[in-house]
Design goal:
mainly beta; 15% helix
């Protein structure tokens, strides 16, 4: 019985000593907001996994009835590969396009092209949500002002014939 108690105390003492070792490395807090499950382990990543060259684009004044597009460049800023799962616009007049099946390796760049159908007159602000890495998202904004195009063509310039003569 003494041998069992002595063995138990020795194992307990070794376990306690091992648990008390001081690490000089700073502790990393891994939460679901800054971690990616790679299958075999959870990897901490930067808060900025997806970097945008610009988060907002202003088209300025555009004519009514003339669709416009702008291309946003994105970069994988993390240490793990991920895919852009979805790019969703806030309305049907905005159409995003991206490489749906492309997996972005660390440091790799890709493009998201956003089209806007300038049908309604007046100022506009539209939001596009980029979902990536299964749980992350970012928002892109496009804005501008649509000016109304004339309903008919310009009147004929009769003085133009005088200049030709």
């Amino acid at each position: 019985m003494k041998q069992i108690i002595t063995l138990f105390c020795a194992v307990f003492a070794l376990t306690a000593l091992h648990a008390q070792q001081i690490s000089t490395a700073p502790a990393a807090v891994i939460t679901t907001a800054n971690a990616v499950n790679t299958g075999s382990k959870v990897v901490a990543v930067s808060d900025e996994m997806l970097l945008l060259t610009e988060a907002e684009f202003n088209f300025g004044k555009i004519p009514q009835g003339k669709p416009v597009t702008h291309t946003f460049e994105v970069t994988n800023n993390s240490k793990v590969a991920f895919k852009i799962n979805n790019v969703a616009a806030s309305c049907g007049c905005t159409t995003p396009e991206w490489e749906k099946d492309k997996v972005l390796a660390p440091g790799e760049k890709s493009k998201i092209t956003v089209g806007f159908n300038a049908a309604a007159e007046g100022p506009f602000t539209k939001f596009i949500t980029v979902s990536y890495s299964d749980t992350q998202s970012k928002q892109i904004t496009i804005k501008g002002e649509v000016w109304k195009t004339p309903g008919n063509s310009a009147p004929e310039n009769k003085g133009l014939n005088d200049l030709k003569n």
